[in-house]
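Dataset card, provenance and construction

Sequences and ligand SMILES were collected as paired inputs. For each pair, a complete structure of the chain with the small molecule in place was predicted and serialized as structure tokens. The example below shows a pair involving magnesium ion. Curators did not alter the output after generation; any descriptive sentences attached to a record were derived from the structure itself.
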Amino acid sequence: MLHVKSLTQAHDGRVVLQLDHWQVAAGRSCCITGPSGSGKTTLLDLLCALRRPASGDILVEGVNVARLSGRAADRWRGSTVGVVTQTPHLLEILTVQENVMLAARMARVAVDGARAASLLDRLGVSALASRPAGRLSQGQRQRVVLARALLCRPRLLLADEPTAHLDDAACAQLCSLMLESCREVGATLLVATHDRRIEPLFDQRLSLPAPENAT
Ligand SMILES: Nc1ncnc2c1ncn2[C@@H]1O[C@H](COP(=O)(O)OP(=O)(O)O)[C@@H](O)[C@H]1O
Ligand SMILES: [Mg+2]
């Protein structure tokens, strides 16, 4: 499903990520660990074609994402990738349901209201569907962000430090929801984290080394 070969990324002439070979099968999960500055977020940005690498290939179901840019990258991302961020950004004045549907509109994908409702139900937040997003707890917001990420049936779900701000209960709940949702549809789950609580939950692990100039 995912096959990364000879990948490097550099900023200001400094190599910030080097990954010779990495594979994750469809429907499997992998956590990406490593100290701060080791390139976890950089790697996720490359995987969803937000940036192009300095060199190397990123094959996602046969598409070389490392070669995509502009509108082709936007189209591919909209149809293939769901993203869960560390800080769950929602539009505060829109309702939960509106926030979930907005992602599909932005990606120019047909909006499936029934699927949005069923995802909110599945993630235990259907009672909040018509509540403004500004009135949710952090754990509730994360689940709404997950529903939004899953709406367009992504083949790849990416999460960057999704549990950093969550207590143990909300952390365990969010992880099992991400793992179960991906397993159900055969999507691949990649989670960048330095949260020791969640590392054992994944099928495999990619450990990025500390940056060379770290003190
Ligand atoms: N847009 C950028 N411009 C310059 N340097 C960057 C940029 N993005 C990331 N970096 C650098 O790349 C390295 C890896 O950062 P990052 O991917 O955020 O690591 P992590 O997520 O593991 O903490 C860091 O040294 C960071 O300063
Ligand atoms: Mg990061």
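Derived descriptions for this record:
The pocket of magnesium ion (ligand 2) is lined by residues 40-41, 160 (CB under 6 Å).
The chain is about 35% helix and 25% strand.
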